[in-house]
Amino acid sequence: MSKIQMVDLKSQYQDIKPEIDQAIQNVIDSSAFINGGVVKEFASNLAAWNQTKYVVPCANGTDGLQIAMMALNLNPGDEVIVPAFTYIATVEIIALLGLTPVFVDVDPKTFNIDPSDVEKKINAKTRAIVPVHLYGQCAEMGLLSAIAKKHELFIIEDFAQAIGSEYKGTRAGNIGDIGVTSFFPSKNLGCFGDGGAIFTNDEDLASKIQMIANHGQSKKYYHDSIGVNSRLDTLQAAILNEKLKHLDEYIKNRRSAAKQYDELLKNLTGKLEIPYRSANTTHVFHQYTIKITSGRDRLKNFLSEKGIPSMIYYPLPIPKQKAYQKYTSDSFPVSEKLSNQVISLPMHTHLTSSDIAFVCESIYSFYK
Ligand SMILES: *Cc1c(COP(=O)(O)O)cnc(C)c1O
């Protein structure tokens, strides 16, 4: 048995090597490294796949979030509601634009932003909510959309971890005003470097987004707004265009791995909790994250000694991070507890049944 990996990008590549290699070679032969034809082609294929009207590719997911905020004309001092338990990118650009991140605790079962806590944090300065569909399952978008409507707030979905997940039949990225995803290599649709995309069904927003991502340029050398330079490389677009053809299958593989984990781990109820499935959303298992009642770090070390990798996403809630403590001294009891309880097990498209069985047997032996 080969070594179990957290993410196995090599096997995924081997399966479609000829197509990927050819796609890369075509870009090199064309020399159209920036804004080559395949960038548009990929954006249009992705829009169709995700049932979204407009997709604007960009350099990475973090840029995508920044461009989304800029397109919504948010101004310094405006408040943006974010979950306390997420990856730093969600919050970083808010701070960078001089906006004020307002942290909200998460639901202990879904790990996603808690709508009842969102309502409590809304005031006259609040302009937007950024739900993060953490680990691959949509936040409670029905309630969040109702709150946003009532208070006239924008919603930017951070679905970097959840491409393909659906909330009551609607694809992630289509529920809020704007959706942003990432093609970081380990994401569910990953390229061979950095990449990202911004999704919207609003034509005006789409053209603003397009313009901001391209130096605020309305036509060449005419700049109508302050923008950024954020492009998806043609090489990355060509790779993604090939991988997109397999995304449904990749999601299927992740789900079947999750199902096998569930079956093997459910007898440990009381010691650990398998991922909760919300009735309103499908799960694409960017991560398979379990909760350990106590001894999480000991389990992590135990697995590591058996050659099994695992990860802690995330060990410290954002408002407790040094750089972000200035925004609030509130406590976020659920996020703080989760950061001590969660552990993500190996999860990727090429995990075998015997890999999963070995991981689960090892967890059993930890508890013997
Ligand atoms: C990966 C990720 C991003 C952005 O990622 P980039 O590395 O900038 O492409 C944003 N939010 C979340 C929750 C992520 O997991």
Helix-and-strand structural type: alpha/beta
Which strand order spans the largest sheet, edge to edge or round the barrel? 1-9-8-5-4-2-3
Strand tally is 14
Q: What is the first-to-last residue Cα distance?
A: 24 Å
Q: List the total number of helices.
A: 13
Low-confidence stretches: none
- Backbone CA Rg: 21 Å
Mean pLDDT over all positions: 97
Strand content: 5-15%
- Rough outline: globular
The molecules bound to the chains, other than polymers, are: pyridoxal-5'-phosphate
Largest sheet: 7 strands, mixed
SSE order, one letter for each helix or strand: HHHEHEHEHEHEEEEEHEEHHEEHHEH
How much helicity do the residues have?
25-40%
Can you summarize this structure?
The chain has 368 residues and is of the alpha/beta class. It is built from 13 helices and 14 strands. The structure holds pyridoxal-5'-phosphate.
Task: Summarize the structure in words.
α2 runs antiparallel to α9, α3 packs parallel to α9 and α4 (61-71) packs across α8 (203-213). The model has no long low-confidence stretch (mean pLDDT 97). α5 links the parallel β2 (79-83) and β3 (100-104). The chain is globular. The protein contains 13 helices and 14 strands. By secondary structure, the protein is α/β, with parallel strands linked by helices. Pyridoxal-5'-phosphate is lined by residues 60-62, 86-87, 89-90, 132, 158, 160-161, 182, 184, 194, 196.
